[in-house]
Design a protein that fits this description.
Blueprint: E1 6-9, H1 14-25, E2 30-34, H2 37-44, E3 49-52, H3 58-65, E4 70-73, H4 81-94, E5 99-103, H5 107-110, H6 117-130, E6 135-141, H7 145-157, E7 162-164, H8 176-188, E8 196-199, H9 207-218, E9 224-226, H10 238-251, H11 261-266, H12 273-288
Parallel strand pairs: 1-2, 1-4, 2-3, 4-5, 5-6, 6-8, 7-9
Helix pairs in contact: 1-8, 3-4, 4-6, 7-12, 9-12
């Protein structure tokens, strides 16, 4: 067990919670940098130490990172994503931190540049990390099952069809639990596996195929509806515009990719869409009882 604590930003979010709980289960010392200490305490109890602060507050960042050994760099999609993460990276470098593991954007939002405001923000952070004297790796997860696929399942359970701008555009969905497992691996390994790692699930699955899997699981027909992606309103906030761009890129087939990164690092196959659907439907049924 490392004596130096692992600092985690974004710990109260969907992915951050999984990472922190994995680290705690491995008896790793964890320190959480958060502006929501009550939420963090309710999630993790006394198992994780809490450093209260804001990304824009250099003093609180310096205090949080002092004597930490490694950093999980994670923050929500937003206008200040690049500035916030660069501030944390600079504090890490100034403190002589050993390693930064960044949760980045999907590879297809970053390359080529200019197609996604979110991808461009993550790319700016990745470039900045390369300029610092800190060992680092940027994880680029493909579309998360717990976000877009979970919403599709909820819509179908409510009696709606599987709606997609392009029903035949595949996605190499990845389970957030696999992202977390790779992040923990890279935090604890003797050395990082590479500067950027493109994380996907085992298969490319189309909305039409998802409708077929749901039809089998629910034992009823599930329709597919082709709907053009909603345009990004210039008056929407950063996240709304970013999500609209994601939909356009997915419809163009940009997320239709798989890699063997998860399997090569963890020694097991990543979780697949069929398993996720089965688990999600079982959880929904349990809640309805």
């Amino acid at each position: 067990m490392s004596a130096a604590p692992i600092l985690v930003t974004g710990a109260t979010g969907r992915l951050g919670q999984i990472v922190v709980k994995r680290l705690i289960a491995l008896d790793q010392p964890v320190r959480i940098f958060t502006r929501r200490p009550e939420t963090a305490r309710s999630l993790f109890g006394p198992a994780a130490r809490i450093a209260v602060g804001e990304f824009a507050d250099g003093a609180s960042l310096a205090a949080a990172i002092r004597d930490a050994g490694r950093l999980l760099l994670l923050s929500p999609i937003g206008e200040t994503l690049a500035a916030d993460q660069i501030a944390v990276a600079n504090a890490a470098a100034a403190a002589g931190l050993h390693r930064v593991v960044k949760i980045s954007g999907s590879d297809w939002t970053i390359e080529p540049p200019g197609s996604s405001i979110s991808g461009d923000a993550h790319a700016a952070v990745e470039r900045h990390l390369r300029s610092l004297p800190v060992e680092h790796v940027s994880l680029r997860p493909n579309a998360w099952m717990q976000v877009s696929l979970a919403n599709t399942i909820r819509q179908v359970l409510a009696g709606n069809p599987v709606a997609a701008a392009n029903p035949d555009a595949g996605v190499g969905y990845i389970d957030a639990r696999d992202i977390a497992d790779v992040a923990v691996h890279e935090l604890l390994a003797d050395g990082i596996a590479g500067e950027t790692l493109n994380l996907t699930g085992p298969d490319v699955v189309t909305p039409r195929q998802i409708a077929g899997l749901l039809s089998i699981a629910l034992k009823r027909p599930v329709d597919v509806a082709e709907r053009p992606p909603a345009g990004a309103s210039p008056h929407g906030d950063f996240e709304q515009r970013a999500v609209a761009q994601f939909a356009t890129l997915i419809a163009a087939g940009r997320a239709a990719t798989t890699t063997d990164v998860v399997a090569s690092l963890l020694g097991r196959a990543p979780r697949g869409v069929e398993t996720f659907i089965s688990e999600h439907l079982a959880a929904e049924a349990a809640l309805a009882r």
